Amino acid sequence: MSTKGLDYESLNENVKNTQYAIRGELYLRALELQAQGKEIILTNVGNPHALGQKPITFPRQVVALCQAPFLMDDPNVGVLFPADAIARAKHYLSMTSGGLGAYCNGGGLLGIRKEVAEFIEKRDGYPSDPELIYLTDGASKGVMQILQTIIRGQGDGILVPVPQYPLYSAATSLFGGSLVPYYLEETANWGLDIQNLHQSVSEASAKGITVRAMVIINPGNPTGQCLSESSLKEILQFCNQENLVLLGDEVYQQNVYQEERPFISAKKVLMDMGPPMSKQVQLVSFHSVSKGYWGECGQRGGYFELTNIPPQTIDEIYKIASISLTNCTGQIFLGIMVNPPKPGDISYDGFLRESNAILGSLGKRARIMTKGFNSCRNVVCNSTEGAMYSFPQIRLPPKAVEAAKRAGKVPDVFYCLKLLEATGISTVPGSGFGQKDGVFHLRTTILAAEEDMHGIMASLKKFNDEFMEQYEDTTEAILGLNE
Amino acid sequence: MSTKGLDYESLNENVKNTQYAIRGELYLRALELQAQGKEIILTNVGNPHALGQKPITFPRQVVALCQAPFLMDDPNVGVLFPADAIARAKHYLSMTSGGLGAYCNGGGLLGIRKEVAEFIEKRDGYPSDPELIYLTDGASKGVMQILQTIIRGQGDGILVPVPQYPLYSAATSLFGGSLVPYYLEETANWGLDIQNLHQSVSEASAKGITVRAMVIINPGNPTGQCLSESSLKEILQFCNQENLVLLGDEVYQQNVYQEERPFISAKKVLMDMGPPMSKQVQLVSFHSVSKGYWGECGQRGGYFELTNIPPQTIDEIYKIASISLTNCTGQIFLGIMVNPPKPGDISYDGFLRESNAILGSLGKRARIMTKGFNSCRNVVCNSTEGAMYSFPQIRLPPKAVEAAKRAGKVPDVFYCLKLLEATGISTVPGSGFGQKDGVFHLRTTILAAEEDMHGIMASLKKFNDEFMEQYEDTTEAILGLNE
Fold first, then answer.
1. Domain named Aminotransferase class I/classII large: which ranges (chains A, B) (predicted)?
2. For chain B, where do the domains classified as CATH 3.40.640.10 start and end?
């Protein structure tokens, strides 16, 4: 009997070939241990609310009122809601064709697209056109739509940083394209070397792959670096020379914890470069309410902005966006994120207090973590300049690598599993993000509660230093007594 | 200079070949006229809230509280919210890992998947497994995911009813598959003829296309029919013989306006048939909060249930769903839709009153519309048994067809444009849904306000009868005086 449409053997090979380590061995083991009653610290996903971060109050008030507009007809509404939240809810409802229950059109609510454009203009000092802004269910839906639009088959390559957030490799495989990695330089604070980029393109070309787009993640995930203006310039020149679309994942633009290298958008750098470059390089920039310091991951709000994209292509993007429309609630969050309460508004002080508390604490936690990792034997860790991750390099002794092999594990998986068993700290092995051969990392988020952070790092150091002692070339390790 | 990645010439051909008439000529002209100040009745999209339908209160209260859980710490919360809405909000929040701002996992919130399973069990009288239910951003995201999983290339065909809701043709093109149409029989109340189905499969096969799945829309969009138990049995037997996955679009299951042919799910009929059939046919059933009588389109809540799908395939479905997660708010709406207030609950009476008012009015409007169309010269219209559309056949006289040709228009587009200009009624020409050659239709929704419905139908009849008089074979038409 022949196979059926949803038998595994007959599925779309691109679906099967897609790698997405969200349910990797580490995560599954963490869930098992949790079910057995062990206390697990889930630092594996950038999901702040799941680690106890409270939502910012004002946007939640506005969205609650938008969802239940009949509350605003109740004379008692002021008992529970401030006047500026009520005014803002009316403002957003007036943009809809029938409240949050009505479909928004393919690009999202025009009023909110205008607010996003104003935010971008203010941020970059250059005009932004609401018609070139598309509101999406989180940044990831937008990334997937753009990659689907670009990729025609295996001959199309997408340049993706390594280490990288696995969305890009997953979406490239899913749409049948080829991943073309470029390595970030750990010793150069995760910067990139343009020579390497050219080489990646040539190597791909030799294999019959035409690179058509390049992804940058700024600030970096999992690497935490902020790209300098000069790096961004080099990248844009490179894209111009090689005729590549630049996909700028800028979802961590509000998560920056140092002043030396503030966030600069790819669009601003491109516009600063002036014509002909500023009119030539095709750029798609992504942002989201999931990241930033709001961490509203479950709301699925995001946008992309199109720069130098021809109108005929925009019609195609609109058409595909129209097939499956974006949720309205996420759009409201996005509107408030780009247009927060202003000085003088009733909710301003509270909003500022909440925002500063979260951002300040994230900065402190980032520093505790970097310092903690660097105090560990055989561990080196760049600073988390931005985003919400720490990505230390774990210099595993040869004996540990051998022990991992004997256990049938990738060495960093071996280390992370032992860390999990010993301490309950659930991390993601660096191999899930891609890394150079023989170099090992892990990723943790900086999201555990601030008051727990010193304890977590002490527990991690104790485990690590014992692990290193066990596997370093001492008599014990040679005799293999402690395995 | 070579083309860039987002130049139109170099885009993914599947994207370009995808047809989605959402911004068709009719809609654009309606917007133009609206901008010029003409009153337009937008009956072109099934978007109830945009036509003034008020949201049902209870789910909106629950979602508002889930979004602003701090309200429940306020002693005054009872001033604005009933106790059962508060209890329900706590119930759903307890299912999340950190409220609506935390990511839900790939399948959606397990607690809500359990409520969906209970709903299905109660509806069909057969067990349903929460692990086989996936919560999605509206039904359309689920349809797209399943089609992407099935389709490997142009050699894979999807059997789609004609006339059909264009999601299916669009998604099939987008993922590079081949659309294999089967015609619904207007004279048999839009029923289907199994002989035709076999023929469609053979014809496809002769062209090198293997049909791998079949779509049914029950109740029908745009055709409004409810499939009988015997039709569903025939369809399931056909899918079994031909080794097809059945995709059951059942998003209108709560929109049924007659008692002769109630909604029956494909899953119930399959289970009723018993083994071996009930263990063999691969079925994916879709439902949504956008349709039903709630009409919460903008919230993007939906689910699909997998029946007889192998575990390895389910792992693949989970993996792909994990790349881009579902919004939480839509999941809460779905939970309440499948588990509404019960007799004895504080909100029960109000919920029932609102529900009955909407459903009762939709039924009345459906009848007014069918009757109105059938009173028009050269128009015949099947009853809207379910869903939210009317799909009359417009028997255009040969002179009207010729006039359309001279104007460079498809004949039904010609008629609908003239209708729009004369009356402000914005419809969708039948050609947008596919139809047999030389047969013309239009689709309207039954969603205009009940009090306006008689006026709309009178205005439509006046236009239609004058149009027919103009183009029928009278001296005037022969002389072409009135064109």
1. 91-448
2. 95-338
